[in-house]
Amino acid sequence: MSLGHEKLDVYRLAIRYVAWVFEHSERLTGMHRHARDQWLRASQSIPLNIAEGNGKASEADRRKYFEIARGSALECAAIQDVLVVGKGLDELVSRKRKVELDRMSAMLSRLGKRGYLVEEDRAGYGLDVDFDPDFDPDFDPDFERAEGEGNGARH
């Protein structure tokens, strides 16, 4: 038997990343201890928020937890940068793991986009289907042409 979140590729990838962070953080001491502690927290936050978000019934709740997990993945990438600069992590090793973080981030973005589009039926307001709510004549050449024809303006 497996729980729903355990079936997600992004969850399994996140768990492997956490295992790698545990392994590599053991040797970080002294001046690296603050980054190590933050790295451990942020890495664990990824799968924990994936699991919690996947268990939510509402799309808004799911999205919130997937976004938090994505933010934690990006935080891990930044922590790796800090560790590379501080000579606590090899740059080539960090780059390889950042590819995984980028993949997780993309997967979480796709999971989180469910329900992102909120749109009302414009016909209910008597509006044309092609109505642009962000009407900006500066970027509409047809509008400029129509305006210019009536008042003799040059372009």
Secondary structure: elements and pairs:
Blueprint: H1 9-25, H2 33-54, H3 59-85, H4 91-112, H5 141-151
Summarize this, please?
The chain contains five helices and no strands. The protein is mostly helical.
Poorly predicted sequence stretches spanning 5 or more consecutive residues: 115-120, 131-141, 150-155
Strand-residue proportion: under 5%
What is the H/E order? Answer: HHHHH
Number of strands: 0
Mean pLDDT: 81
State Rg. Answer: 24 Å
Give the CATH architecture of the largest domain.
Up-down Bundle
CATH superfamily of the largest domain: 23S rRNA-intervening sequence
CATH top level of the largest domain is Mainly Alpha
State the end-to-end distance.
69 Å
* Portion of residues within helices: 55-70%
Structural class: mainly alpha
Instruction: Report the sheet with the most strands, covering strand number, pairing sense and barrel closure.
Output: none
DSSP summary: helix tally: 5
Whole-number total of structural domains: 2
| CATH topology label of the largest domain | de novo design (two linked rop proteins)
Shape: elongated
